[in-house]
Design brief:
The protein is mainly α. It has one domain. Helix content is 81%, strand content 0%. The chain has 3 helices and no strands.
């Protein structure tokens, strides 16, 4: 049973060459940047003169990080 649970938590991180905690760190940082991009987009929707390129820059940065991560 314990091995089955460990497999659930480790199977996906291992497919991208990471430990459980390494994968969690990457996912939390990714989520934080996505939330920041979302907040910038929300503010921009109301005040279009603010954060004109912030959300798109963050998304581009995340796309590059994700793409480079899988190419190793």
């Amino acid at each position: 049973m314990t091995q089955a649970i460990a497999r659930l938590f480790n199977a996906h991180p291992e497919t991208v060459g990471e430990s459980y905690f390494g994968h969690a760190r990457f996912a939390f940082s990714f989520a934080g940047l996505l939330m920041l991009a979302g907040m910038a987009a929300l503010v921009h929707a109301i005040l279009p003169f603010l954060f004109e390129t912030t959300a798109s820059r963050i998304i581009t940065k995340l796309h590059t990080r994700m793409h480079n991560r899988h190419s190793h």
